[in-house]
Amino acid sequence: MALVPAPKTPTVAIARVLRDLGLKQGAAADFRVTGHYENGERRYTYVILLSREAEDLVAANADQIEAWTDRGPFGFTVSVRYSKNGNAFCTIRNVRAGRVRQTPPALVVEPVVEPAAPAPAAEPVMEPVAPTAPAVDHREEYRQQEQAKALGWTAQQAETMARAATGGLHLDEHGVLRYATAPARTGRRVAAHLLGPLVGAAFVTLAAPAAGRAAVELTADGRRALLVWTRQAPAPAVKHRSERAHALRPLLGGVEARRRSDAFEAEMARRQAERDAYYAEAAVRWAAEDHEEVLRDLWAAAEEVRNPYAKRPAGWVPTPAQVTEHRMPADLVAELHAEHDRLNPAPTAAAAVAPLLAAIPAQRRRPAAVRPFLPRKDTRCPVRPARPRPHACSYACGNSASTCPTAPASSAPTPRHRAATSAPGRGARTAPTAQTCGSAPATRWANSSPRLASSRTRSGT
């Protein structure tokens, strides 16, 4: 007879004992051995019994199983518990503490009772019905709790909402937030930073000014929020000074929340429509580009173009030899011909006659008179009157030599001059004539200007 070696693990030790009792091991059999782990560490080994027959067999041999396992290095304890109907439930594990052994309950035989004769029916007695408490709407209670937690009010903001509910919160004519306990009173000032977040979350609104005051009134969401805050009494939020003006969340499930949700959904729908339109247009554009790539490949293959960046010329049509050589599809060839016909339409009757009309010499016409361009201050213009010629009369009298009564009989004009000795002074309006002035030269300065003649006369030249 061969000797059986001692088990090296608790799993092998208990499996041998149970197999000796006639049980089968496996997931679809009578028992399975596994371990209990805590924080990744195996604490003990236990057995899971999978059938009622295995439970009863282990309960009947509980002491024998403990004795057999104690002979080896791994001892197991067997705990047996019974249900009310007498079924045994066994626990096998290699932990010494917590061993339980219950005794099977005694079977109680119920006596057979014969049915008695039916008793006469008694008259119904009307008993007063005690008043019952109203049923609690757990759904509404849960909704209020969630709304109260989502408000996020500080103690000052909750107090401001309570003051607005009394109707004493208002803005005066200077825009100062005040709280008055009576209509005739001015009221004390209230911190202005408390009103902005409440108005932004649609908890309060400003009424139309009346008698220099704009009352702060609660909205439907504000009344519901104040009711929820009062009933649930959540813990007020604690905020830093820099967080006092931060926006508040609207009432959960309120009118403002639904309005923002609808606006958000409308914006998302608009963006989705724009995105769909963009991608639809892009799909058409990409398809056209892909089709153009196909036509460009046909052109490059037919014309033996090696430059990958060269573009197909518009209106290009392959020759019949190119169509046969490169086996071009008939639909693409027809498309190329249609593009060529569209870009190069057939000449009309007027276009056909135009070259013939161009060959006929044009009828000679008399050229139109071209009016010469004359400057505005051109002294040579024949239309302008001639300026009076200078003569030997008074200094710039304004008459011509033929009309001036003081002019000499000679037809030759005598230039005006200014004598150096007999002139009345610089800036004088009159001067001696050339016949009476002895210092004036006879002929040298006859045609020079009067100022130049007078200056040269004074210098002695």
Describe the secondary structure blueprint for this structure:
Blueprint lengths: L9 H11 L10 E8 L2 E9 L2 H9 L1 H9 L6 E6 L5 E6 L44 H14 L3 H12 L2 E3 L5 E3 L8 E2 L5 H6 L3 E3 L7 E5 L1 H13 L22 H49 L16 H7 L3 H14 L5 H11 L90 H10 L2
Antiparallel strand pairs: 1-2, 2-4, 3-4, 5-6, 5-9, 6-7, 8-9
Brief write-up:
The protein is of the alpha+beta class and 461 residues long. It contains twelve helices and nine strands. 15% of the residues are buried.
Task: Describe the protein.
The chain has a five-stranded antiparallel β-sheet with strand order 7-6-5-9-8. It is flat. It starts with 9 loop residues before the first helix and ends with a helix. Helix 5 (155-166) packs across helix 7 (220-232). The chain is built from twelve helices and nine strands. It has four domains: 10-93; 139-255, no CATH class; 270-348, no CATH class; 388-461, no CATH class. It has helices spanning 10-20, 52-60, 62-70, 138-151, 155-166, 195-200, 220-232, 255-303, 320-326, 330-343, 349-359, 450-459; strands at 31-38, 41-49, 77-82, 88-93, 169-171, 177-179, 188-189, 204-206, 214-218. Strand 1 and strand 2 (41-49) form a beta hairpin. It is an alpha+beta fold and 461 residues long.
Overall pLDDT confidence: 78
Give the strand content: 5-15%
**Global outline:** flat
Write down the Rg: 62 Å
**Terminal-residue CA separation:** 170 Å
Briefly note the structural class of the backbone. Answer: alpha+beta
Number of strands: 9
The helical percent reads 25-40%
Describe the strand arrangement of the main beta sheet, using strand numbers.
7-6-5-9-8
Helix and strand pattern = HEEHHEEHHEEEHEEHHHHHH
